[in-house]
Amino acid sequence: MFSFLQKIGKSLMFPIATLPAAALLLRFGQDDLLGIPFMSAAGAGIIDNLAIIFAIGIAMGLAHDGNGGAALAGAVAYLVLTSSIVTINETINMGVFAGILSGIVGGLLYNKFYNVKFPQWLAFFGGRRFVPIITAATMTILAGLLGYAWPPIQEGIDSAGEWILNAGMFGVGAYGFLNRLLLPTGLHHVINTVVWFDFGTFTDASGEVVRGEINRFLKGDPTAGPFLSGFFPIMMFGLPAACLAMYATAKKERKAIVGGMLFSIAFTSFLTGITEPIEFSFMFLSPILYVVHALLTGGSMMVAYALDIHHGFGFSAGAIDFVLNYGLAKNPLLLLVMGLVVGVIYFFIFYFLILKLDLKTPGREDEDEEGAENASSSNTAVDVRAYHTIEGLGGVDNITAVGYCTTRLRMTVKDSDLVNEKELKRHGAMGVMKINKTNVQVVIGTAVEFLGDAMKPRLANGNPAPAASSEAAGTKNETTEEPAMKQIIAKDFEMPIQGEIIPLSEVPDDVFAQGMMGQGFAIMPTGNVLHSPVDGRIVSVFPTKHAIGIETDTGIELLIHVGLDTVKLKGEGFETLVEQGQLVQRGDALLKLDLTFLKANAPSVATPVIFTNLTEQKVTMLKNGFQEQGTASILKVE
C-alpha cells in the first residue's frame, strides 16, 4: 500500500505542474495587473478543469510506459463517472476526487489490458484499443455504486475539512508539521491535494462553487490562504538561513567548495519555493534536526494565522508567487517581517545543532574527497554524471526501473543494500533515501529530468564508461572491448512470437538466406503479436511498421523483419506498440499483426530475426520447430 501511495504521489506531480501556468494567466489577466479578460479566462480554463486534468495526468503517470492510451482511458473514466453519477443524485460533486479516482482506474486498467489478445475476428479491439472500452464499463459500475456511497464519504471529508478549518491555528499548524514530516516519503503530495483542491467551498461572482485552498484563493475568496501563508517565511527565509548555517559550520578549507552549491539551492528555495535539495541535505543526518524543521514549519503556519495573514501560491511559496499574488493577499508585508525572524531562528538552531551533534553536513565530511564532485557537478557532462549515478545505484544489474518527479529520482532496484550513498553524493546527489528493499529515492534537484533521461539509454547499453571520464575508463577498461560485451546467454533470449523456427537458408529471399545482413534465424509465425525476445532499447521503428530494431543491454543490435516485401504494404496489417528509444524487457509487446491480411498480400510471412553487428561472435540455435511465444533458451550468442 505504501508503494502504491508513493506512485499516486508521483503521478500527482504531472497535473500539478500545470498550476504555475494557470496562476500566471489568471493573475496577469485580472484588473489589478494587465486587465486582459481573455488571459484570466485562459488561466481559469485550467483551474476550473483540474479534475479532468488530474484524471489524464494520473493515468499517464501510473501507466508502465507513460503511453497516451492511458491518458485517454483516464479522460473516458472521468467523463463516464461524472456524467452518470448525477443521474442517481444530482447534488453530487466529487470535485478533484473524481479526477483522482478516474486517473487511478484508467492507469491500472491500462497496465492490465494494454496487450490483451482476442480472436482474429475481434482483433481490431485488442491491445490498447480495448482499454477505453473496459474503462468505460468499469466506471459505469463504479458510478452506480458511488451514486449511493459517495454522499456519506463526502460528508466525512467535509466534516474533517471543516474541523481542520475551524481548528484555527492548531489546524493549520498540524497541517504544516505533517506537510514537512511526510516529505521524505513523498506522501505529502497526497495530503496537499486534499487541502489544496478540496477543503472549503467558495461561491464566486458567477455563482460557481469553488473547492480547495489554492482554487479559492486565486478566485478571490477572502477566507482562503491560512493553509498557504505560513510556508512563505520558511521557504524564502528559513531554509536559506539553514544553508548559511551549514556554510558557516563547514570546514575552513571546504567552504569555497560547498559555498556555490549551498548558495544555488538556497536561492532556488527563495525564488521558487523548491526546498527538497536543502531538506535532503540534512534530514538523514539528524532526524531530530528534521523534526525541528517540521515543528518550525508548523509554528510559522500558526503565527501567520494568528496575525491574520492571507497569502497563497499557484506552485510553491517562493518569491515569484509572493510577488505575483501580492494583490490578492491580506497583510502580506507581515510575512517579510516573519521571514526575517524565522531566518534568524533557523540560523542559530542549525548552527548550534550542527556543531553540538557534529553533523556531517556539506563541507564537514570526514573524508576529504567526500562531496568534492558534488560542488562541481553542474559543470560535469550529464552523460558522465549518469554513468556514475548508475554505478552508485549498484550498477545496471541492480536497477529495475527509472522514474523521477520534480527534484528526485525514484528508482526501483533489486537490492537497496547495494546502493552506495557516498558514491552518489560524490557525483551530485543531495540526498538518498532507501524506502524499502527495492525502492530508493535520490534527490538531484531541478535537473533531475535530464539526468533520468540520460540514464535510460545507458542502462539499455550496459552503462559503458564515458570517454569524458578518465577515471571510469581506467576502472572499466575491459568494457571497451566489444567482443567481451556482445553476448547473449541462453536464458536471456525468448521466442518473440508463436510459430515455427526455420533456418535463414530457407527464407525465400537471397539477402536473408545468404546471411548478407547477418547471422540469425527465421520464424513462420502463427501468432498475432510480436514480443521482445530480449531486454534492451528500441533503436528503430520503421515508418512502414514492418521491422523493428532492438539494441540489447549487452550491446547487440537485433533486427526483426516481419514478412518479405512487407515494406510495400505501407504499414497496413501492422500496429506498433512501442516507440523509438523506449526501454523494453523480454516479453513486452512490440507489434500487432493482422496475419490473415499479411498472408494474402505479402509473398511470405517468414520473419527473419537478424543479429546485425556481430563480428567474432557466433549464433548457436538451441531449439527448432514449433515453439510457443515466450519459450526461453532458443539460442545463445558467444
Describe the fold and architecture.
- By secondary structure, this protein is α+β, with helices and mostly antiparallel strands.
- It contains 25 helices and 19 strands.
- The chain has an 8-stranded antiparallel beta sheet with strand order 14-10-11-12-16-8-7-18, covered by helices on one side. A 4-stranded antiparallel beta sheet has the order 3-4-6-5. Strands 9-15-13 form a 3-stranded antiparallel beta sheet, with no helix packed on it.
- A hairpin with a 4-residue loop joins β5 and β6 (439-443).
- The longest helix has 37 residues, at 130-166.
- It is globular.
- It starts with a helix and ends with a strand.
- 47% of the residues are buried.
How far from one another are the termini?
Answer: 43 Å
The percent range for helix content is 40-55%
* β-strand number: 19
User: Per DSSP, what share of the residues sits in E-state strands of 2 or more residues?
Assistant: 5-15%
Structural class: alpha+beta
> What general outline do the C-alpha atoms trace?
globular
- Quick check: average pLDDT? 82
User: Tally the helices: what do you get?
Assistant: 25
Largest sheet: 8 strands, antiparallel
Strand order of the largest sheet: 14-10-11-12-16-8-7-18
Gyration radius from CA atoms, angstroms: 28 Å
Region (Disordered): 461-481
Transmembrane segments: 12-30, 36-62, 69-86, 92-110, 130-151, 227-250, 256-275, 287-307, 333-354
Keywords: Cell membrane, Kinase, Membrane, Phosphotransferase system, Sugar transport, Transferase, Transmembrane, Transmembrane helix, Transport
Domain PTS EIIB type-1: 383-465
